[in-house]
Specification:
This protein is mainly alpha-helical. The longest helix is centred in the middle third of the chain and has 25 residues.
């Protein structure tokens, strides 16, 4: 693929909001072939102090803020509001780097036709997924060569191609392959989704998106033009090969397979901000759908074409039957929030931190190289020693099922202190009847696993 212009030095966004760094190609960089580092529950606190954890948080917050509606004053003196939706120009008329990644995803999806599902009886995990994944493994080098700029793949090599131990291709390959589920376990979950985010983060660091406009424009293209199409490929894989949820809490989790679309989708519907304002922590876009609308299947079908949150809900409706509050109780709880999508978005950031990045079953397979490094972040704070943290499972155990004393993991921002592992209680104003909900009798601390600076209040200091 033809090379893009060389990367520019990293810059902060408007208002000096954190942005994932872009490496300087003139400075020598030593790549590391990504390897597994989280081997047991006690390794999770080490991860929460790593540079990789810091960079994941920075990138998520960067993409999240870009998806929030923008307001400005028009020539007529009236407020103008811009929203960013699925199917907009960010997807249909993308810059070259985004278009190439879209073509790569289309090619990856096409491999499904070469590996049709096995017809034998099997409830979860069709064995033909292994054939599909083998095709991806065999062709991943050619995919990167065709769809990623050469100056990204050869970053930092110069004339040293035959002397280095690892290259950018090694790190990109690990995260791209990790983004499409496990051929061994025939499953897909939020850890695989996290791996694809890291793949995009690696591309960002290596300057692959330098052809995009700054000020949030290229970030919107990444979310709407690459991440949402990636989710469509993954959803087809799940349906075709009946992939089992990975690291799932079952009915007690937010979603069996995904988390990030709920972050960016709630940002799409939050109160409009200027380019210099932080993310709102309450309020909604004018005329945005009400959170309670997620329980109405017909409305979800309409909105899933425009919004990532409703698109994710729509996929749940595709694969699960029965009352929404019964198969998705946490999302049902969240739909009763009265303070708007800004409040939901703030909570999703905190919940992502607690339920994805801080959970051993989810992050145990995440590999670490040079771009997402296991090295300690010198500015990291020590994670809180909470009930969550001290009860991490080991590599030889599996996630215990919920009991009456531990009824799943609720949104940590939706419950009062001292009631860890309990369902959120929204009161009688909720739009639908609710099942009985046991509350934990175990005294404890606030259930947030760590006070990540980027997870406190969506760009605002805590307090």
């Amino acid at each position: 693929m033809e090379a893009l212009p060389p990367p520019q030095p990293p810059q902060s966004g408007a208002g000096s909001f954190p942005v994932l760094e872009t490496l300087d190609p003139s400075v020598q960089h030593v790549f590391i072939k990504p390897v597994k580092q989280i081997n047991d529950g006690p390794d999770v606190p080490k991860f929460l102090k790593s540079k990789a954890y810091r960079d994941i948080g920075t990138f998520v917050m960067q993409l999240n803020r870009a998806m929030c509606p923008r307001k400005s004053v028009g020539d007529d003196g009236k407020d103008k509001i811009r929203t960013f939706q699925i199917g907009s120009e960010y997807e249909t008329q993308p810059v070259e780097s985004i278009r190439k990644l879209q073509n790569m995803l289309a090619k990856i999806e096409s491999y499904i036709d070469e590996a049709p599902p096995d017809q034998g009886p099997r409830r979860f995990g069709n064995i033909s997924f292994r054939k599909w994944y083998q095709l991806l493994e065999e062709r991943v080098a050619d995919l990167l060569k065709e769809f990623v700029p050469d100056n990204v793949l050869s970053f930092g090599l110069g004339g040293e191609r035959n002397k280095v131990r690892a290259t950018a291709v090694d790190e990109l390959t690990a995260y791209l392959l990790g983004g499409f589920g496990s051929a061994q376990r025939l499953d897909y979950g939020t850890g695989h989704e996290l791996s694809f985010l890291a793949f995009l983060g690696c591309l960002w660091k290596l300057g692959a998106f330098q052809d995009g406009k700054p000020g949030g424009e290229i970030e919107r293209s990444i979310v709407l033009g690459v991440f949402e199409p990636y989710l469509r490929v993954v959803r087809r894989l799940i349906l075709t090969y009946t992939l089992e949820p990975a690291g799932s809490h079952g009915v007690w989790g937010l979603d069996d397979h995904s988390f990030q679309p709920y972050i960016y989708g709630s940002a799409q519907l939050s109160r409009a901000i200027t380019d210099s304002e932080p993310m709102p922590i309450e309020g909604s876009l004018f005329r945005a759908p009400k959170p309670a609308q997620v329980v109405k299947a017909e409305y979800v079908e309409q909105e899933r074409k425009r919004n990532l949150y409703f698109s994710a809900i729509g996929f749940i409706n595709d694969v699960k039957k029965g009352p929404f509050w019964e198969h998705s109780p946490i999302l049902f709880d969240i739909s009763g929030i009265k303070d708007g999508w800004g409040k939901i978005n703030k909570g999703m950031i905190k919940m992502f931190n607690a339920e994805v990045l801080s959970k051993f079953p989810v992050v145990q397979h995440f590999p670490f190289g040079s771009l997402f490094s296991w090295k300690q972040d010198p500015d990291a704070t020590t994670p809180q020693n909470t009930v969550h943290m001290t009860n991490q499972p080991t590599s030889t155990t599996s996630m215990p099922p919920p009991s009456s004393a531990s009824a799943g993991t609720a949104a940590p921002w939706a419950q009062p202190p001292g009631i860890p592992y309990s369902r959120a209680q929204w009161g009688p104003a909720h739009p639908l009847p609710r099942p009985s909900q046991p509350r934990s009798s175990v005294p404890g601390r606030e259930p947030a696993v760590t006070q990540a600076p980027w997870a406190r209040s969506s760009d605002r200091p805590s307090g």
